[in-house]
Design brief:
mainly alpha; 8 helices; 198 residues
């Protein structure tokens, strides 16, 4: 807000929140986790907002800062208002970005079956390749097996971190599908390079 989008200011975080909800509304009709993904994401965002900002009193503080002090306000209140008023937009933007974070977290939870499906396809393909290698007298490589096995969890974590940390709105398919494909590739290579004999 201060460096990349100073002309948009507070509107950037509002636009991100509405864009993330619109992606869900337009492209996700149903999911294995929830029958109504949009309601699931909105509920998660609203509960996050309630717990983080309403219960802690930050919302009341922002409302108090946005209203100008009245004529009968004390010197302390006038000085606090003058000192904290410039930070009000940043606090409101942080409140909206926390809702964006919750919506993106809901999207990733709804996308978990995609990773499972891709892993299943990679596992089947890898086991078929393993059988072909085993019966064809191919060589096994424990080096490739161990590196592929170690890369599965970081691929899952990187997909979550990359999508949750994006400072702009991007369709979830552009993040979820490439990482799910790489995850399936890692699972497939791990299964194909497993030991010849058990």
């Amino acid at each position: 807000m201060a460096y990349w989008w100073p002309e948009q200011g507070l509107e950037h975080s509002r636009d991100m929140l509405s864009a993330e909800i619109d992606y869900l509304h337009a492209d996700v009709g149903r999911s294995l986790i929830s029958a109504d993904p949009v309601a699931f994401a909105r509920t998660l965002a609203d509960r996050t907002y309630f717990v983080v900002f309403d219960l802690t009193g930050i919302e009341r503080l922002v409302r108090w800062l946005s209203d100008a002090p009245k004529g009968d306000a004390g010197r302390f209140q006038t000085r606090m208002h003058a000192w904290l008023q410039p930070a009000t937009d940043h606090v409101v933007a942080a409140m909206q970005v926390s809702q964006v974070f919750a919506v993106r977290l809901a999207v990733l939870l709804l996308a978990a079956p995609v990773f499972g499906l891709f892993a299943l396809v990679g596992l089947v393909d890898g086991l078929v390749s393993r059988d072909l290698r085993r019966w064809g007298g191919g060589r096994e490589s424990s080096f490739v097996y161990h590196w592929a096995k170690r890369s599965t969890v970081p691929l899952l974590v990187c997909s979550w971190v990359a999508y949750l940390a994006l400072p702009f709105s991007l369709h979830p398919a552009f993040v979820v599908l490439p990482f799910a494909g790489l995850f399936a590739l890692a699972v497939g290579v791990t299964a194909s390079r497993f030991k010849k004999y058990l």
